[in-house]
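Please, structure for the following, as tokens.
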Amino acid sequence: MSRSPKRPELPARREPLSTDAFWAFAVWCWSQPEARSRLLHWQDHHQIDVLLVLFACWLPDRRGSPVWRKLAQGSGDWNRRVTRRIRTLRRRIPERSWADGYRACLALEQSAERVEAAWLTQTARLGRSEAPASPALSERLRRLFPALSESEIDRFLADLRS
């Protein structure tokens, strides 16, 4: 049985936010089978932006509600206009009969997600404040993704902790 990679360290409160550090965290989360399964379900059944979920789990310090609204709006817009369209195309390509086309679309989809990750970290970097602390992570996810039940969010967070 292979072990999943070690969970990346979260950035310290005063460190600059890094797209590469966030991406490493996102890849680690994606490597957790239970978490990946739940994220795919949320993506396919609730149109939840997986990168925004992971960013909300990764971001270590204070951001006020206006910053979270901007992050959710901008990443949701990119996800709807770009990433979901590429994903839809990739899913229409029969992987076995046209492996090169499938891999090319998968690479394009991952590139679109990297662009979103860079935008999230850059926007959050600009939005740092000493505003009142944002709520606990489970509450933050409930506010950002009201379509998800409290138990779904709690199970996801348990998946990441195990």
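The chain has one domain: 19-161. The CA atoms of residues 88 and 105 lie 10 Å apart.
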